[in-house]
Amino acid sequence: MQKSLRRTFAFIRKETIQSLRDWRTLLMMLALPIMMMFFFAYAVNLLVDHMPTAVADMSKDDESRAFIEALEISGYFDVKMHVESEEDVIRMIDVGQAKAGVVIPPDFAARVERGDAQVLIVLDGSESLTVQTGYSAASAIAQTHSVELLMGKAGQMGAALGLFGGGALPIDTSTRVLYNPDMDGLVFMVPGIAAILLQFLTVGQVAMVVVRERELGTLEQLLITPVRPLELIISKVVPNIFITVADTVLIVLIGVVWFDVPFRGSIGLFAWVSLLFIVSGLGLGLLVSTVSQTQKQAQQITAVLILLATMLTGLFYPRLTMPPLVRAVGNLLPVTYFIRIARGIITKGIGLSFMWRDVVILAIYAVVVIVLASLTFRKRLD
């Protein structure tokens, strides 16, 4: 019994020393829960407020300005731009500068006086929480503002309540949900899930391949050849590009054919941008492999990246509610830009002119991450 306890304690001591020596894994195990706690606390916000809003006020009278002010005071809508027409409102939503729009018709004050004023609320249907919050908030704000108008007109609480009970509200809002009028959850989710799956495949594949070769000793055999670090990196990336392209086709086909998600944009444009995203993801995987000593570390880093991708990129939680520092962390992941691109092409059907900024950032990201992986890999070889 004593010998068994001594052997057990000896192995416990050995494992403890080994764990303490592996400072990278230890640091990750200690820091990860703290980091995730802060990210969850700041990123997971199901209440969407301060939505960037485009306003087309074709009346420009006191009543229309009062209604716009009521929207802003509510805290749900932030008027960022004034445009001339409903078409301009939709364009601002297409390019991502606005998440909601307000269209006020001419002669608004006269219509309010007659009790038949109409206001159109346009919402970006590519984000579920934005639609749900905007839909409820717009109706509630219009109703509250209408009651205030009635109270002011009647001059006393009782008369206003009597009018309210008779359904004589002077302002009525109609809501138009762009791209997804039925608010089908799959239309919201499929483009984003496809992006996350591709991110997981690209980062995980290359990171594990390189680290596994290092553990097996086959990487040292490559070092005696004239191959250069960049050439070796390219040789690792190219085969995985073909594999991931096949995965992309399968994922999109399943979403469109099996789940009946409409593909409204250009297939050719989506193919080229997806290829750019795949290259950036494979470069990120190579960068992960250069800082990982073992397959276990590579798996842990990949898991952290995927977890951050599900939280900080706008897949489930709107980025506009996140603090600037949290959004900045999300900007370090290529999938942040590709989710917007995928939703823009698949859900909205928009072209390159509306999302060229995200495409340019993704291209720069791909170049930078591959150069960094090459330089880091060179240092590891030295």
Quick summary of this structure?
This protein is of the alpha/beta class. The protein has helices at residues 2-21, 23-43, 62-74, 86-94, 108-114, 128-154, 157-165, 185-216, 218-223, 229-258, 267-291, 295-312, 324-330, 334-348, 352-381; strands spanning 51-57, 77-82, 100-104, 117-124, 171-178.
Would you write up a description of this structure?
This protein has helices spanning 2-21, 23-43, 62-74, 86-94, 108-114, 128-154, 157-165, 185-216, 218-223, 229-258, 267-291, 295-312, 324-330, 334-348, 352-381; strands at 51-57, 77-82, 100-104, 117-124, 171-178. Helix 3 (62-74) links the parallel strand 1 (51-57) and strand 2. It has 382 residues and is an alpha/beta fold. The radius of gyration is 27 Å and the shape is elongated. It has two domains: 51-178, abc type-2 transporter like fold, CATH 3.40.1710.10; 184-381, no CATH class. The two termini are 51 Å apart. Strands 2-1-3-4-5 form a five-stranded mixed beta sheet, sandwiched between helices.
